[in-house]
Amino acid sequence: MNLTLKIWRQKNASDKGKMVDYPISNISPDMSFLEMLDVLNNELIEKGEEPVSFDHDCREGICGSCSLYINGEAHGPDRLITTCQLHMRTFKDGETITIEPWRATAFPVIKDLVVDRTAFDRIQHAGGFISVNTSGNTIDANAIPVNKQDADDAFSAATCIGCGACVASCKNSSAMLFVGAKVSQFALLPQGQVEATDRVLNMVKQMDEEGFGNCTNTGACEVECPKGISLENIARMNTEFLKASLKG
Amino acid sequence: MALDSKIPQGPIADKWTNYKNHIDLVNPANKRNIDVIVVGTGLAGGSAAATLAELGYNVKAFCFQDSPRRAHSIAAQGGINAAKNYQGDGDSTYRLFYDTVKGGDYRSREANVYRLAEVSTNIIDQCVAQGVPFAREYGGLLDNRSFGGVLVSRTFYAAGQTGQQLLLGAYSAMNRQIGRGKIKMYNRHEMLDVVKVDGKARGIITRNLITGEIERHSAHAVVLGTGGYGNVFFLSTNAMGSNVTAAWKAHKRGAYFANPCYTQIHPTCIPVSGDHQSKLTLMSESLRNDGRIWVPKHMKDVEAIKAGTLKPKDLAESDRDYYLERRYPAFGNLVPRDVASRAAKERCDAGYGVNATGEAVFLDFASAIQRYGKEAAHVKGLNENDTALVTKLGQEIIKNKYGNLFQMYEKIVDQDPYNTPMMIYPAVHYTMGGIWVDYNLMTSVPGLYAIGEANFSDHGANRLGASALMQGLADGYFVLPYTIGDYLSDDIRTGPISTETKEFEEAEKEVRERIEFFVNNEGSHSVDYFHKKLGKIMWNKVGMSRNVQGLTEAISEIKALREEFWKDVRVPGTNEEFNEELAKAGRVADFLELGELFAKDALNREESCGGHFREDSVELDGEQKGEALRDDENYAYVAAWEYKGEPSDAVLHKEQLEFNDIELKQRSYK
Amino acid sequence: MSGILNSSIGRKFAMALSALFLMIFILQHFAINILSVISPDAFNEASHFMGTFWAVQYLLQPVLIIGVIFHFVMGFVLEIKNNKARAISYAKNNGAANSSWMSRNMIWSGGFILVFLVIHFIDFWIPEINTKYIVGDMSGTLPSGEFRYHEELVHKFKDLWRVALYCVGFVFLALHLLHGFNSAFQSVGANNKYTKGLKGFSKVYAIGVPAGFIFIAVFHFLNH
Q1: B418-473 residue pLDDT tens
Q2: Where is the 2Fe-2S ferredoxin-type domain positioned along the sequence (chain A) (predicted)?
């Protein structure tokens, strides 16, 4: 395959940045998208140019490192996958592919396509945990039965990989799906009940302070989420938040 | 220096309890005056950092990723073992201990493994309390499944994302401590050296991967939870960033490196498709619960399948060779990983590989789909003889169990595994070898600890499935927090460690010089060019099957490649920026040294054990003909290598393994 | 409870509550208007009651006005805040791939509804207020002694341009409701396995009510 890539290049956080065109040829349809970028980078290095920086690590869709807004969509046009699982067979020979970093004020660009997602970590620091000591001297794991449906729903919420596609796809750059998933995971489990009030209030407060936008329920996040996290998690967080606000 | 494993006295079942009863403790007020550095934030590092902070130590945690949550533990799929015996199928601490030692081909330290089995049950209690959403049964209790090499169901799981859920549990425990200010988290920081003061590990040198700043960090003890070195093969199931640098720097500062040649080649990975490939993807071992592995019996069918004229699902049962079931009737498709991998290689070497490269075998779910489908039809009172209905019901059940893995497979290979068997082939997955540690998990450098995959201790020559998660969390949550206290109790009056000393200065200078070299070297090839070459040498000559000639060649080829690398590597950009190539250059430089030691270790060990298979050490006759042959008389030891400059100059120290509670036997899965 | 409006979810909740309130109002408005087609007398009776009953005039009417103003002001405030959350926009964005046009353009459909409302107030509400509270005529009748409401309504819908304008206004209302109805329920947390039926109902409401208003306008235009 022969392709034209339009890639966002930005030297560092203070640089203005611009889109740059790169032609690339001899791409196999069996390559993953990131392997295609590896080929580009290798060519750039051997030509003495600066390779394109992008975040990536596990390359099997679970670490949440890779990002990229490809042809106007987070993780590209395919569904339920991350960019590292996107394969070139999705594209047509001769196509022009636009590649941009996640765009959100809360995710400033570090370099090229690499953005700073530590805002997500800070939201988790504010309450994304159950305050139980790691001594191992807790009650037996089977002491509290958990309804299977609740356990499964909690798991589905917990499969979030923290990649930020929800924020990137949202027209408002809202982080509600990310936060909703974490709040839901704990809200659905008996172990999470004790701190439910503080957790949701603190996490939402931190989310707002980080500069994410407001949710307007467009549902783009759910569609683009590589793990298919449901909007129901946002609804659940809304309920949890209101309950907590009335109590607090 | 003689190796002292510091195994406590007494019967094996009491060792850990007695040990805990007699170690020195640090009182809570004094813990506030003690700093601990934890490098790596996977299951081992993350759980250790959280627990140490909770105990009251000041923890500084480091990871090269942008968040601790992205450590590669997250990719572990299948599950975590624990001797809970919830299924009442005969499991016990002893049996988990026994299975692990046997699975490791009798090359692990008994006392460590027993302790691991002992604390395994706490892990499950702990994780449930943290809100880890393990799979449950309809009654609300935890579900289990079985893994390779064992005869009980003791594996706890969360679909095919157990590692993710456990890591997020540890990450949440860390978050709680970061929020409290007890852990200071350094994301996107790479450790580039260990600093020793008066013979003790007292700090590290790091590079800020965003700004390039070289930083000094001091502490009273340093803990490495930096994972394995499978990426020495270039292609592996490890993450792209997984590297040996932290461990290798520790080695260069005096930590012995143990059994580097013990590498696990995982039997069920998606085969290599071309030269562009950057990594290999694992298909969880749990698939072997339901998938049957086969190749065609006849060469004509192999050729027809390769040519696309025969669909694998149309090949008659009688023309298929379910070679694992044939060779190992007792364990069948659930033999341990090393055995399954070698058997696949044996068939493919004989020409029966089923894809274009000849390096793939089938993993087939058709019979499981039929079996489950019939069961479901029976339960629902539907017609069990309606094939279409049974297939549909069966596929739904398989989807519930392995949906995410099947989806992953389909995305990569572009084939639907519900309707055609998966193609799989072994790939490098885990390294049992690592930094040598004693019972306290301390390396041969005082104050320097290694936990999780980074150390060598618990899996011997082969790791059983679902045991890596167990070991990582056991080390971090329940072992290190005790053992490190014993060491730190001497440090309560030391006070803060200054970074303004000549030791820090020298270490920083070395780090800077190396970086300067890379960015200024006028070479012609990218770092990956060398890494791929190294990977080819390793895979072809130090891979699944090893011999004297290949290993000798590998040693000299790696040495030559290393020299070429230092002459001809090209690193674009500067130090003072986000520069992934620069980071990679440092890592590959270390792989190029490790690779040689790896081959040297493999050459030294003239026996076959676990993941280390020497062609010159096999059973020559009898029922076990062709199977790996151990040499307990001469090689029942841990090979711990001391750094002396060039890898070829490394000095071997032997820790003799003693087996008092388990009888050494030929590992039979027949 | 304090500061709830300072949080993103609180604002979203307030937006949803005002929306739900307005949707109930619209339904009520529609119920009375449709009487103008069925029975002019009943329409006159109902209109007179609404126009003169104290609780409606002095309680509900101010609440409604505040609700409308709040909904619009908050809508614009949120839009500005949300724009700030993405300082640099994408060179290429394929919003249609993951969300409906309606959901992405609430500010535009809302803006047009605002324009329509201004016209609607000039047409009906201001004359009404003028008659009742400035002129002081609370009788609700024409000089002929008959109720004036139906007559005034019919009179307004004689002009083609006005009918067309109202129809466009209602189309925007439909577009706004097509996203807004469900969205309001999602915002107050009603999205789970028990609320699947809501989606269907929301479509019926979002299309049915504006279509009904269009029918009324066109009916009067054609019949008088």
Answers
A1: 999 999 999 999 999 999 999 999 999 999 999 999 999 899 999 999 999 999 99
A2: 1-103
User: Which chains have 3+ CB pairs within 8 A of A?
Assistant: B, C
Tell if the CB–CB gap between A34 and B414 is shorter than 8 Å.
Answer: no
Q: What is the edge-to-edge ordering of all strands in the sheet holding A73-74?
A: A18-24, A3-9, A96-100, A69-70, A73-74
- Give the pLDDT confidence score for residue B145 in this predicted structure: 87
All CATH 3.10.20.30 domain ranges of chain A, comma separated, are 3-110
Contacts of A38 in chain B (CB under 8 A): 276, 278, 528
Pairing state between β B257-258 and B434-435: antiparallel
How many angstroms separate the CA of residue A92 from the nearest CA in chain B?
16
What are the residue ranges spanned by the domains of chain C? Answer: 4-84+103-223
- CA neighbor of C168 nearest in space, from C124, C220, C123, C115: C115
Q: How far away is chain A from the Cα of B666, in angstroms, using its nearest Cα?
A: 36
Contacts of B29 (CB under 8 A, 6+ apart): none
Please give the CATH topology (third level) of the domain spanning A3-110.
Ubiquitin-like (UB roll) (3.10.20)
Name the closest residue on chain A to residue B573, using Cα atoms. Answer: A50
Per residue in C68-82, pLDDT (tens digit) is 999 999 999 999 999
- Dist CA B156 CA B166 (whole Å): 11
The answer to whether the CB atoms of C99 and A207 lie below 8 A apart is no
By C-alpha distance, the chain A residue nearest B180 is: A125
Pick the CATH number of A118-247 from 3.90.1150.10, 1.10.1060.10, 3.30.1330.10, 3.20.20.80: 1.10.1060.10
Q: By residue range, what is the domain housing residue B586? A: 521-656
Closest of A180, A153, A159 to residue A234, by C-alpha:
A180
Q: CATH number of the domain at C4-84+103-223, out of 3.90.1530, 2.60.40, 1.20.1300, 3.30.230?
A: 1.20.1300
Contacts of B272 in chain A (CB under 8 A): none
ipTM (interface predicted TM): 0.98
Is 90 exceeded by the pLDDT of residue B541?
Answer: yes
- Is chain A in touch with chain B: ≥3 Cβ pairs within 8 A? yes
Identify the chains in contact with C, defined as 3+ C-beta pairs within 8 A.
A
Report, as residue numbers or ranges, the catalytic residues of B.
Answer: 337
Distance in angstroms (rounded) separating the CA atoms of residues A37 and A22: 11
B69, B208, B470, B532: best mutation site toward chain A, by most A Cβ within 10 Å?
B69
